[in-house]
Amino acid sequence: MDLKVFWTDAAIEKLEGIFDYYKTKASIEVARKVVGSIVDSTIRLETHPRIGQTEDLLKEKEKEYRFVVAGNYKVIYWIEEPYVKIATVFDCRQNPTRMRGV
Asked: How do strand 4-7 and strand 83-91 relate by DSSP bridges?
């Protein structure tokens, strides 16, 4: 099953925020590396969309949210064929209850 990865506007905003943070606090090279790692973690979802674990903190939501980990970040997504839709990117160093706003 080959699906297309689709980044929602909210997920793109998070990715841009992560890039801007690392560009300011470290360097543009570090920002590219961190964001590249996050994006790369979603590539395998095209062929194996159920590889990610179910996100327990979002079980009460209508959709079945799953996640893959890239460094300190969880990439939260759901499957809506023919897409894997990226809902957000969550920094695991934050309070987990903040994730419920997805």
From this structure: parallel
Q: 50-92: per-residue pLDDT in tens?
A: 999 999 999 999 999 999 999 999 999 999 999 999 999 999 9
Q: What is the pLDDT of residues 36-48, one digit of tens each?
A: 999 999 999 999 9
Helix (H) or strand (E) holding 10: helix 9-25
End-to-end CA gap in the chain: 26
| Domain made up of 4-91: CATH architecture | 2-Layer Sandwich (3.30)
The full set of domain ranges for the chain reads 4-91
pTM of the model: 0.91
